[in-house]
Amino acid sequence: MERPWFDRETGVLILDEYITSLPSYEKYVADGIITPIEVAEQAQNLAESLKKLEQSLSPEQHALVTEALCETAFLYEMMSFN
Description:
Elements: H1 16-19, H2 23-29, H3 36-56, H4 59-80
Protein backbone atom coordinates (compact mmCIF):
# COMPACT_ATOMS: atom_id res chain seq x y z
CA MET A 1 0.00 0.00 0.00
CA GLU A 2 1.74 3.13 -1.23
CA ARG A 3 -0.39 5.79 0.47
CA PRO A 4 -2.35 4.49 3.45
CA TRP A 5 -5.57 6.24 4.37
CA PHE A 6 -4.97 5.96 8.11
CA ASP A 7 -1.99 6.73 10.34
CA ARG A 8 -0.56 3.35 11.35
CA GLU A 9 0.04 4.42 14.95
CA THR A 10 -3.05 6.49 15.75
CA GLY A 11 -5.63 5.13 13.31
CA VAL A 12 -6.51 8.71 12.35
CA LEU A 13 -7.60 9.39 8.76
CA ILE A 14 -4.72 11.23 7.05
CA LEU A 15 -6.08 12.05 3.61
CA ASP A 16 -5.71 15.74 4.42
CA GLU A 17 -1.96 15.22 4.17
CA TYR A 18 -2.37 14.17 0.52
CA ILE A 19 -4.70 16.98 -0.51
CA THR A 20 -1.89 19.51 -0.83
CA SER A 21 -0.28 17.39 -3.54
CA LEU A 22 -3.33 17.62 -5.81
CA PRO A 23 -2.86 19.89 -8.84
CA SER A 24 -6.34 21.28 -8.22
CA TYR A 25 -5.38 22.24 -4.64
CA GLU A 26 -2.57 24.46 -5.84
CA LYS A 27 -4.75 25.90 -8.59
CA TYR A 28 -7.75 26.74 -6.41
CA VAL A 29 -6.09 27.68 -3.13
CA ALA A 30 -3.23 29.79 -4.48
CA ASP A 31 -5.09 33.09 -4.13
CA GLY A 32 -6.85 32.17 -0.88
CA ILE A 33 -10.30 32.49 -2.47
CA ILE A 34 -12.56 29.62 -3.54
CA THR A 35 -15.12 30.67 -6.13
CA PRO A 36 -18.35 28.89 -7.09
CA ILE A 37 -16.75 28.08 -10.46
CA GLU A 38 -13.80 26.42 -8.72
CA VAL A 39 -16.18 24.39 -6.56
CA ALA A 40 -17.99 23.22 -9.71
CA GLU A 41 -14.68 22.33 -11.37
CA GLN A 42 -13.60 20.35 -8.31
CA ALA A 43 -16.96 18.54 -8.30
CA GLN A 44 -16.23 17.56 -11.91
CA ASN A 45 -12.72 16.39 -10.92
CA LEU A 46 -14.28 14.20 -8.23
CA ALA A 47 -16.89 12.78 -10.61
CA GLU A 48 -14.20 11.86 -13.14
CA SER A 49 -12.09 10.17 -10.45
CA LEU A 50 -15.09 8.22 -9.18
CA LYS A 51 -15.99 7.07 -12.69
CA LYS A 52 -12.46 5.74 -13.21
CA LEU A 53 -12.56 4.01 -9.83
CA GLU A 54 -15.98 2.48 -10.43
CA GLN A 55 -14.86 0.93 -13.71
CA SER A 56 -11.92 -0.79 -12.01
CA LEU A 57 -13.80 -2.41 -9.11
CA SER A 58 -15.03 -5.94 -8.68
CA PRO A 59 -18.66 -6.24 -7.50
CA GLU A 60 -17.46 -6.83 -3.92
CA GLN A 61 -15.12 -3.85 -4.01
CA HIS A 62 -17.89 -1.75 -5.56
CA ALA A 63 -20.18 -2.56 -2.64
CA LEU A 64 -17.51 -1.63 -0.08
CA VAL A 65 -16.61 1.64 -1.79
CA THR A 66 -20.31 2.51 -2.22
CA GLU A 67 -20.87 1.99 1.50
CA ALA A 68 -17.83 4.13 2.38
CA LEU A 69 -18.92 6.93 0.04
CA CYS A 70 -22.45 6.89 1.46
CA GLU A 71 -21.11 7.02 5.04
CA THR A 72 -18.88 9.95 4.01
CA ALA A 73 -21.75 11.80 2.36
CA PHE A 74 -23.95 11.25 5.41
CA LEU A 75 -21.21 12.55 7.73
CA TYR A 76 -20.95 15.75 5.70
CA GLU A 77 -24.73 16.07 5.71
CA MET A 78 -24.78 15.64 9.50
CA MET A 79 -22.11 18.31 9.89
CA SER A 80 -24.19 20.78 7.90
CA PHE A 81 -26.96 20.55 10.52
CA ASN A 82 -24.78 22.20 13.17
